Amino acid sequence: MKLCMIGTGYVGLVSGVCFSDLGNDVICVDKDKTKIDLLKKGKVPIYEPGLSELVIKNHKNKRLRFSSDLKTSVKNSDIIFICVGTPTKKGGSSADLSQIYNVAKELSSSINKYKIIITKSTVPVTTGDEIEKILLKKNNKNKFSVVSNPEFLREGEAIRDFTYPDRIVVGSNDKKSNKILKNLYGPLISKGAQYHDTSRRAAELIKYASNAFLATKITFINELANLCEKTSINIEDISIGMGLDKRIGGRFLRAGPAYGGSCFPKDTKAIVSTSDKFKTNLSVIKTVIKSNKNRSQLLLKRIYNILGKKIRNKRITFLGVTFKANTDDMRDSSSLTMIPTLSKKGAIIKYYDPTGYKKEFKKNKNVYYAKSIREALEDSNLVIIHTEWNDFKSINFKTMVNSKKFIIYDMRNIYSPAKIKAQGFKYYSVGR
User: Fold this and answer.
1) CA 387, CA 182: separation in Å to the nearest integer?
2) Strands, E assignment, 182-280
3) 135 close to 117: Cβ distance less than 8 angstroms
4) Regarding predicted confidence, which is higher, 403 or 89?
5) In terms of pTM, does the model score above 0.85?
């Protein structure tokens, strides 16, 4: 099939590349010509394991193309995926849909035959209705279908998630588009993916509801970890015991820093904003947002206590600063709260992340990027394991540096307390 992906951010690029790997003719469009030129050269602007290899392979096989010419790309395609950003509005909580509607306006003058217009971006309920209204200003209703097909890709696991999805959600209000899309996803359905055909509005809400529920699981286990620390209980025993219940499941029950990334923070806010619009109170999700916001402050308080409330001139190392492992995404990472706060209190911060230097800390005083784990650990008073990269899971701290004086605060519980303490280090973790 001939597909057009509008937007070469995380969702658009990963989805487009994976669709081309299934044998489809895919053109990825972006108004950023610099990004398009880089992609044509096989250079991928985001960090995602395995993505570069697939880009090079499918571009070479001419199944994958890149362009900044939206009009021509749309005219030459049958299925159009809108994959642009829907960030939180500045100073508010609702989703900024300006990019979505701008694309819809451009599409309205490029429909030369029947097209399926799909929102792949995460959008609030009724967005599809608004897109349809825009398209109807210049087109007959029988020339297009507007469909919601939300993505469920985890950063760092995106290619696997696309290739072996739990479910495929398609929200359409007509049989024609649904039949075509079921055929498009046929190779994934044959591997066991559940195909859920529903209404357009339902599909839009399913994505928000899913992310809000997962955010709730993370927040729930983080709050239980606080209780475990005061009752001398290991939070991991609680997570395992709960996860064995098939009604609950073990995923997203790992205690640690606040949730972050491109989805959970903005999507929990957006679904609350939608509920307010329709005069419905989502009190549970509101509480989740509040609790998660307080999480970084609670962990900072723990840092202060570990250091005897003496922060000035203390040398603090952060191993990992992204919101999770296997991604370079810094959006809403708890490190963006912790590091500037510690810096303002007079601490000297060094950080190492496998994805390199982070411009987000450029303006912070006494915050330095280390080029290796060894360099990051040198002369440190406190080492914070902030992100669960594999690079950090087997460090021999005793042999890595000459001094054994630093304290280790493992925010991801990747080490055995007994093992680290046996090496002669003071060790703290979360909920243990």
Assistant:
1) 38
2) 194-198
3) yes
4) 89
5) yes
Q: Are 208 and 270 in contact (CB under 8 A)?
A: yes
**CATH topology classification for 2-198:** Rossmann fold (3.40.50)
Are the C-beta atoms of residues 254 and 221 closer than 8 Å to each other?
Answer: yes
Q: If you ran DSSP here, which 8-state letter would residue 83 be given?
A: -
Q: Tell the CATH topology of 295-429.
A: Rossmann fold (3.40.50)
Average pLDDT, whole number, for the chain? 96
> What residue ranges do the domains of the chain occupy?
2-198, 208-293, 295-429
Listed in sequence order, the residues at least 6 apart from 197 whose beta carbon sits closer than 8 Å to its beta carbon are 170, 172, 178, 182
Amino acid at position 66, single letter: F
Q: Which two tokens stand for residue 407?
A: 């304290």
Amino acid at 180: I
- Main-chain phi, psi angles of 363, to 5 degrees: -85, -5
Catalytic residue among 4, 18, 228, 263: 263
pLDDT tens digits, 358-390:
999 999 999 999 999 999 999 999 999 999 999
CA distances from 130 to 147, 201, 215, 270 (A): 12, 11, 28, 17
Second CATH level (architecture) for the domain 208-293:
Orthogonal Bundle (1.10)
Instruction: Report the 10 Å Cβ neighbour count for 11.
Output: 23
pLDDT tens per residue, range 34-55: 999 999 999 999 999 999 999 9
Given a contact cutoff of 8 angstroms between Cβ atoms, the answer to whether 163 and 188 are in contact is: yes
Count Cβ atoms below 10 Å from residue 312 Cβ, excluding itself.
9
Same fold, 208-293 and 295-429: no
> In terms of residues, how long is the chain?
432
Give which of 35, 17, 36, 34 is closest to 26, Cα–Cα: 17
Helix or strand run (H / E) with residue 101? helix 98-108
Report the distance separating Cα 192 and Cα 370, nearest Å.
44
Phi and psi dihedrals of 288, rounded to 5? -60, -45
Which position has the token pair 């007079």? 346
What is the rounded CA–CA span in Å between residue 160 and residue 221?
26
Q: What count of other Cβ atoms lies within 10 Å of the Cβ of residue 345?
A: 14
Distance CA 72, CA 364 (A): 45
28 is catalytic: no
Closest CA to 121 of 34, 5, 246: 5
- What is the pLDDT, as a whole number, of residue 405? 82
